[in-house]
Write a structure and sequence with these properties.
By secondary structure, the protein is mainly alpha-helical. It contains three helices and two strands. Strands 1-2 form a two-stranded antiparallel sheet.
Amino acid sequence: MWANYVLTSLYRCAAKPEFLQEAKDLHSWLSAAFDHLHEDPELSFGEQRTCAFVQQQLTEHGVKFQAPIAKHGVLAHVGYGHPVVVLRADMDALPILENASHAVRYEQ
């Protein structure tokens, strides 16, 4: 039931003409954030800089949040009402060597 509600809501948003332009406007910000996080990875339980970056971005975009959650976690509050949709994301990196073909990579 809630999945149908979410899909219906997303479809209504995507059907608006301004939706595509807003998505394009976010592209440079999303790319810069991705590059920043990818260039400075932190392993599990050591995500101090990542947590600070996420909090900075939320503050700049006017999103209320709680931190720290379980040391370096962040709980953001977006929107209001019911139903409530929860998104979860990991912020830690894996200890691997990256393929040199990537444009953005860890350099330390």
